[in-house]
């Protein structure tokens, strides 16, 4: 199977695992000379919070999620790692529930691999809160690599 496109989908909880995510992407994308689709997925409330925090011009009616993602520090740090390893990437932003939005992005960019981060959770935690990673693992149109944070 050829690997042309790797989707790395990040969210608010991924700032503390940038190195691990970058390493996982570099490991699969570099040997295949694949392009990375670097996407930040926001829920509506997360998006509003980030737009406020990043001081976007209040006069703009609609702020492009791609622009918000491009200005986000998690994306900046990952992009720097990809630049250092000479990996091609494209940045995008998406608004929606994390799991389904990541699955939709994987289809829309025709991803050959999806990489997502997550943390270890108790069975009760998964049942009560659901699991983005679990949804992506079960629903993505391609193989998924899960980068776990044990903290």
Q: Which percent bin holds the helix content?
A: 40-55%
The proportion of strand residues reads 15-25%
The CATH architecture would be 3-Layer(aba) Sandwich
Q: Using the alpha-carbon principal axes, give the shape.
A: globular
Cα radius of gyration in angstroms: 15 Å
Number of strands: 5
- The low-pLDDT segments are none
The largest β sheet comes out as: 5 strands, parallel
**What is the helix/strand order?**
EHEHHHEHEHHE
> What is the terminal separation in angstroms?
34 Å
Instruction: Supply the CATH class.
Output: Alpha Beta
Category by helix and strand content: alpha/beta
Give the number of domains. 1
Kindly report the average pLDDT value.
Answer: 89
CATH topology: Rossmann fold
| Strand numbers in spatial order across the main sheet | 3-2-1-4-5
What's the CATH superfamily, by name? HUPs
Question: How many helices?
Answer: 7
Organism: Natronorubrum aibiense
Pfam family, one: Usp
Family: Belongs to the universal stress protein A family.
Protein name: Universal stress protein
């Amino acid at each position: 199977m050829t690997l042309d496109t790797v989707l790395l989908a990040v969210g608010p909880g991924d700032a503390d695992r940038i190195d691990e995510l970058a390493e996982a992407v570099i490991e699969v994308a570099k040997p295949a000379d694949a392009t990375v689709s670097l996407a930040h997925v926001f829920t509506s409330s997360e998006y509003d919070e980030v737009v406020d925090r990043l001081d976007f011009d209040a006069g703009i009616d609609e702020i492009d999620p791609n622009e918000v993602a491009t200005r986000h520090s998690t994306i900046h740090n990952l992009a720097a790692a990809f630049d250092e390893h000479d990996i091609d990437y494209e940045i995008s932003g998406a608004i929606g529930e994390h799991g389904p939005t990541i699955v939709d992005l994987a289809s829309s960019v025709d991803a050959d691999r999806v990489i997502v981060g997550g943390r270890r959770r108790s069975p009760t935690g998964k049942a009560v809160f659901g699991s983005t990673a679990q949804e992506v693992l079960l629903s993505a149109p391609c193989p998924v690599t899960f980068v776990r944070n044990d903290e």
